[in-house]
Design brief:
Blueprint lengths: L1 E6 L2 E3 L5 E9 L2 E11 L6 E6 L5 E3 L7 E6 L4 E6 L8 E11 L4 E5 L3 E5 L2
Length: 120
């Protein structure tokens, strides 16, 4: 498995921007999928952005046009750039990386979660 450490959360005003980072470390794996999920207060965890192995990225309707998933392969880090933030974006955000292990198992790994608060 890989170990994921998230950073970049915090308080931001509506209309502002924030960039979340998810740094992965480990060995004996190959990245299959990456994604960002969030859990809004009182709600279940939902997908925000997912990048599958092919490189295609899917965004939640609420995130389209505002959020962008990206990678820095050299740093083994994935990002979620969030622009034009709204109060409803307030949530705990989780990075997820699905890996293929050396013995060909698919394993999902989660970051610790990081709080984003959008408020004036």
């Amino acid at each position: 498995q890989v170990h994921l450490v998230e950073s970049g959360g915090g308080l931001v005003q509506p209309g502002g921007s924030l960039k979340l980072s998810c740094a992965a470390s480990g060995s004996g794996f190959s990245i299959n999928t990456v994604g960002w999920y969030r859990q809004q207060p009182g709600k279940q965890r939902e997908m925000v952005a997912e990048e599958i192995y092919s490189g295609d990225t899917k965004y939640a309707d609420s995130a389209k046009g505002r959020f962008t998933l990206s990678r820095d392969n050299a740093k083994n880090t994935v990002y979620l750039q969030m622009n034009n933030l709204k109060s409803e974006d307030t949530a705990v955000y989780y990075c997820n990386i699905g890996i293929i292990t050396s013995d060909l198992r698919y394993v999902e790994n989660w970051g610790q979660g990081i709080l984003v608060t959008v408020s004036a």
